[in-house]
Amino acid sequence: MDIFALKPLIICALIFVPLERLLALHPQQKILRKSLGIDVIYALLNSFILKVVMILVAASAASLAGLLVPERLGPIVSGQATWLQIVEIIIIADLGVYAAHRAFHAIPALWKFHAIHHSIDELDWLATFRAHPVDQIITKSVSLLPILFLGFSTEAIAIYFLIYTGHALLLHANVRMNFGPLKWLIASPQFHRWHHADHREAYDKNFASQLSIIDALLGTFHVPGSALPEKYGVDEPVPTSYLGQIGYPFLRRNQERANAAVGTPASDA
């Protein structure tokens, strides 16, 4: 467990808990909601796992970049103004997030991992962290490898991570907030709540993490006026414990293989 992630988590709580009280979308939703403890475990434990894996990914990317990327490209990219690099990183990374996210919805074997994140039925800022490590590793790798290959500056990447993290927390927060006409450009809490909605018309919509314009251009944008979903979550019975959720994708696949071997259809239970 990453004890160094505890301090940032406390800082986030000091920001978002009061914000959720002031702008509460669901005032009746408790701060100490059900499954809160599991999401704290995700925030602390997944942070450590992701750091280790991304260090390995970054090291591998650096080695491959030396072989595949022209030597002069890195200085050109990192020599741009920091603000321009950040804009470019957001666009490139979010295209990667969109592609990976859409794949996690479209491919049944990957959906089992992503269903963990969608099992949340009470959204708040802390729910951001509930994601299977396999989901996080694949999505982060797909979205960040181009950034590492192209040689963006460390400063620009660090600022991007701060922006990305703050935006992700806001998207999941229990706040009544939309961005008006900007909803077509920038992902809003309303936009992301429809992604989590357990409504047939909202399935497989709103995949972008920061730029909703990607969904608008690719036909997966769904924000019906000022309406908000009535319920969140998934219909399948995802375990409620941390270890149960971590093992869920593997157990389901083993069950399906066993059922296929004996010619029995997989159960939804």
Question: Which terms would index this structure?
Answer:
single chain; 269 residues; disordered C terminus; mainly alpha; 10 helices; globular
List the helices and strands and how they pair.
Blueprint: H1 6-22, H2 36-68, H3 73-78, H4 82-106, H5 108-118, H6 133-150, H7 154-172, H8 189-196, H9 212-218, H10 242-262
Task: Give an overview in words.
By secondary structure, the chain is an all-alpha fold. It has one domain (3-261). It has helices at residues 6-22, 36-68, 73-78, 82-106, 108-118, 133-150, 154-172, 189-196, 212-218, 242-262. Helix 4 packs across helix 5 (108-118), helix 4 packs across helix 7 (154-172) and helix 5 runs antiparallel to helix 10 (242-262).
| Beta-strand content | under 5%
Give the SSE order as H and E letters: HHHHHHHHHH
Uncertain ranges:
260-269
Overall 3D shape: globular
- Gyration radius over CA: 19 Å
Overall strand count: 0
Q: Percent helix among the residues?
A: 55-70%
Described by strand count, sense and barrel closure, the largest sheet is: none
Mean pLDDT: 90
Any idea how many domains? 1
Content-based structural category: mainly alpha
- In whole angstroms, the N-to-C terminal distance is 32 Å
- Total helical segments: 10
